[in-house]
Amino acid sequence: MPSGRSTKIAVIGSGLMGSALARAFAAAGHEVAVWNRTPGKARAVGGGTLAFESLTEAVSGRELVVVSLSNYAAFAELVASAPVASALAGTTVVQLTSGSPADARGGLEWAKAHGVDYLDAAILAFPGFVATDYATVFYAGSRATFDRHLEALQAIAKNSVYVDEKIGSAATLDCAILEAFYGGTLAVLHAAAMCKAEGLDPKAFLAQKNSFLGLISVTADAAQGMIESNDFSGDQCSLNTHVAALEHIVRLSTDARISSRFPKELLENYRRALTAGLGEKELPAVFSTLKQD
Ligand code: NAP
């Protein structure tokens, strides 16, 4: 049941994510205008939203303008139109398009120059999870602007997390989480391929997910203190020993004739730490070798 104050919101972009966001705002009782480059998609959003053909009209008189486009360049193209930019003046733009911290900084610069309040945000959810307990949105920018809109923003994710005043901080956190996700997922898929190639049902490996997720969790916890203190010594397992284990993975992949590119890349990264004289340190010591050459 909708509760709280109704806010005039515009959602720019009626792709998979934008449509889900717009419907969630409308379901929470907000007055939602939608606009999309391909107008049919905006009309198809439904859920009590109102589709506009003109972007200027869609954003005029709105308190909150939520943007969900493929990339920041698409947003820059849209707001290059003087009528659109002047209709946005006085609104708060919440940029939910995924991007890099540099993209976020560019967005803030544009907003400052056009009298727009600006939050950069990153959503950690598939569209089907929007407005459920599985959705998290990270926000960066002015704390006061975030606090002012928090109640309305919670329509898309109760778990709305303010990260930092630094405008790039939500994008940084998003990229960090996504790297762990994509890298970890590639590792899981490569491991399943190794099992299959060796005649072991990948189910046997996947059923052990709690063991490798647990190891990653323990390592992340240990890494936190070690990174803080810049001291990677310990008595659990040396990098020399870890590198030997990685060599087995490369050999298995090569013998079983599956791609060894991923484990070789891992091995190269860990070996670099040995070359740097860190062989007797614990695994997180690799962190100190990751600065760009
Ligand atoms: P999508 O379904 O492909 O939608 C992309 C949207 O961007 C469409 O509305 C498209 O308009 C619009 N667009 C692209 N280029 C444009 C341009 N030059 N000018 C105007 N509009 C343009 O993608 P999505 O899944 O909704 O993703 C949208 C954003 O959410 C992305 O930044 C994505 O990284 C982020 N995100 C998505 C998910 C997810 O699971 N889907 C999760 C987290 C974050 P047309 O319809 O006219 O092409």
UniProtKB/TrEMBL annotation:
The lineage of its organism: Bacteria, Pseudomonadati, Myxococcota, Myxococcia, Myxococcales. It holds the Pfam family NAD_binding_2. It comes from the Bacteria. The keyword Oxidoreductase applies. Residues 168-291 form the NADPH-dependent reductive aminase-like C-terminal domain. Residues 1-22 form the signal peptide. Keywords: Oxidoreductase, Signal. The keyword Electron transport does not apply. Gene3D superfamilies: N-(1-d-carboxylethyl)-l-norvaline Dehydrogenase, domain 2, NAD(P)-binding Rossmann-like Domain. GO terms for molecular function: NADP binding; oxidoreductase activity. This is NAD(P)-dependent oxidoreductase. It comes from Corallococcus aberystwythensis. InterPro entries: 6PGD_dom2, 6PGDH_NADP-bd, HIBADH-related, HIBADH-related_NP60_sf, NAD(P)-bd_dom_sf, RedAm-like_C. Residues 8-162 form the 6-phosphogluconate dehydrogenase NADP-binding domain.
